[in-house]
Automatic annotation (TrEMBL):
Residues 4-298 form the Inosine/uridine-preferring nucleoside hydrolase domain. Keywords: Hydrolase. The lineage of its organism: Bacteria, Pseudomonadati, Pseudomonadota, Gammaproteobacteria, Lysobacterales. It comes from Arenimonas maotaiensis. Signal peptide: none annotated. SUPFAM superfamilies: Nucleoside hydrolase. This is Inosine-uridine preferring nucleoside hydrolase. The keyword Transcription does not apply.
Length: 309
């Protein structure tokens, strides 16, 4: 089984992605590295532990960075709730997090599984940037790196030009995109092309499984928010990234180009500028997902929620 390490900021859509990973028979989940992002670190760590408990999964949870590398950032509690899990007031998990920092855990696991590790990031890239500074050999050791982040045609979900995970910590994203020669990118634009009807999602979440019940509860507010803002279709950014990570065979179209992260600008801080025409001559490091198999995506989400095929 492929060793899998996930860096995440749960977060409602992180939770769905994690449930997908928990159910994958072909992967061995080594642990969850956690960062601040959607909400503060205390909440994202508590949410990760709780989700494991709900799903009956016992993997180590490593707390990481509680803020971006350089500048203060704004969270996304207006989408995910003040606690990041829809403010349903769940009973905290019984288990505690590890003492080891997430960045150190990334370095250690990449060493232990050199060449084979599948590393997936579902949140800001702060922990990974730090890990890269701790171990400059990291890119050689990580087998595949899949990043949910960016807005490759410049249509951001957080600012005019920037997607949340990059906008939260542009310096960290710049470190990662400058340092890794091969990154599979699932950006916000791709996410918008892979929505599901709210009516279908509501039907899946009515299932009587622990995962569906919990996910129904924690996602209720954000689903209502997204219906009000984006209409008929519901999107899960992190779940799409997880599909691409766990099932590369379901990625139907992608393009590889050089990608630069802007750290300055009146409107462009956190923008991901893609050299679509290969004008810069810079090595193309970003493998950008354009289209995935929507039926397979639906099947994997249903499986993650414990629904029958
Ligand atoms: C990303 O931002 C977060 O709010 C989501 O969890 C996802 O990782 C989408 O832009
Ligand atoms: Ca996330």
């Amino acid at each position: 089984r492929i060793p899998l390490l996930i860096d995440t900021d749960p977060g409602v859509d992180d939770a769905l992605a994690l449930l997908m990973a928990f159910r994958s028979p072909n992967h061995r989940l080594l642990g969850l590295c956690v960062t601040a992002g959607n909400v503060g670190l205390t909440h994202t760590v508590a949410n990760a532990l709780k989700l494991c408990e709900v799903a009956g999964i016992e993997v180590p949870v490593y707390p990481g960075c509680d803020r971006p590398l350089v500048f203060p950032a704004e969270d996304a509690s207006y989408v995910h709730g003040r606690d990041g899990f829809g403010d349903v007031g769940y009973q905290p998990a019984r288990r505690a997090a590890e003492a080891e920092h997430a960045a150190l855990a990334i370095v250690r696991e990449a060493d232990a599984h050199a060449g084979n590790l599948l590393l997936v990031t579902l949140g800001p890239l702060t922990n990974l940037a730090l890990a890269l500074r701790l171990d400059p050999e990291l890119p050689r050791k990580v087998g595949r790196l899949v990043v949910m982040g960016g807005a490759v045609t410049g249509k951001g979900n957080t600012s005019i030009a920037a997607e949340f995970n990059v906008a939260f910590d542009p310096e960290a994203a710049a470190v990662v995109f400058d340092g890794f020669p091969d990154i599979e990118v699932v950006d916000w634009e791709a996410v918008l092309g892979h929505g599901f009807r709210h009516a279908d999602v509501n039907r899946w979440l009515a299932a009587d499984t622990p995962e569906a019940r919990f996910y129904d509860a924690i996602s209720r507010k954000t689903r209502a928010w997204s219906e009000g803002k984006r209409g008929e279709y519901w999107h899960s950014a992190d779940a799409l990234a997880m599909l691409a990570a766990l099932h590369p065979e379901h990625v139907l179209e992608k393009e590889r180009h050089f990608l630069h992260v802007e750290t300055q600008g009146v409107h462009t801080r956190g923008a991901t500028v893609v050299d679509w025409q290969d004008r810069t001559g810079r090595p193309a490091q970003a493998d950008i997902l354009l289209r995935a198999d929507q039926a397979a995506f639906e099947a994997r989400i249903r499986q993650a929620l414990g629904l029958p095929d």
